[in-house]
Design brief:
Blueprint: H1 16-24, H2 29-36, E1 40-44, E2 50-55, E3 61-68, E4 75-82, H3 85-95
Antiparallel strand pairs: 1-2, 2-3, 3-4
Length: 100
Amino acid sequence: MTDLLPITIEDFDYTAWHVQHIARHGVTIAEVIEVLESGYAVTPAKLGRYKVIGVTNTSRCLAIIFAPARGASRYELVTARTADRAERHDYITFKLGGEK
């Protein structure tokens, strides 16, 4: 499992472009917020970004990428999509209290 980061994302910046971009992946801002309101794992991503893996209220597992923000919040949404098999495995391991 990828190393987990002790990061909490309570607020994030996004624009209409981000909403349209994640919609192309079949994800809504409401689903991103649902993941952030539940237990989620944070791992390092490329380019100094952070990958959040968690589930929506309908048990859909998402991978959400955030970058350090330049705006009012500490983080900016980059993209969101359905988590792949390895990401789902990492999330399940995290939820079961497995390796860290």
